[in-house]
Design brief:
Distance between the termini: 31 Å
Radius of gyration: 14 Å
Oligomer: single chain
Largest sheet: 4 strands, mixed
Order of helices and strands: HEEEHEEHHEE
Helix content: 40-55%
Number of domains: 1
Shape: globular
Strand order of the largest sheet: 5-4-6-7
Structural class: alpha+beta
Length: 129
């Protein structure tokens, strides 16, 4: 299982670019941007404002269940859908559960979150980095 975890971690790490941007480039395929620039900009702004944070589960979420405007909700949803699609594809390739890939990626996203951004620890508590 450790070998599978390492392979998934390396694959996911290679697939994630920047602060939440997702791109996929496997087996000679062209990199496919899995989110729009406007969604990334909206989410980055919400992260900086402390409204959205990374979770240990590998997805974005509203910090402390804050109310989000429609554009921010839509951008967060777009990115989370793209992440799930990537996690599912990688999980299928590695013959593991999607949740395993998501959690491994979540650990990395939480670790690389910027100073002042919020992250949801696996304990369930939001922490400002």
């Amino acid at each position: 299982m450790k070998t599978v975890s390492k392979i998934i971690a390396l694959t996911v790490t290679g697939a994630l670019l920047g602060a939440g941007a997702i791109a996929l480039n496997t087996q000679g395929l062209n990199a496919a941007q899995a989110q729009s620039a406007s969604a990334k900009a909206t989410v980055d702004s919400a992260k900086a404002a402390g409204k959205i944070g990374e979770t240990a589960a590998g997805y974005l979420d509203a910090v402390n269940n804050q109310s989000l405007d429609a554009a921010t909700k839509a951008a967060m949803k777009e990115i989370n859908i793209a992440r799930k699609a990537l996690y599912t594809r990688l999980a299928n390739e590695q013959n593991v559960k999607t949740e395993v890939v998501a959690a491994l990626t979540g650990e990395k996203q939480v670790a690389k979150a910027g100073g002042g951004e919020y992250v949801l620890k696996s304990s369930g508590s939001w922490v400002k980095k």
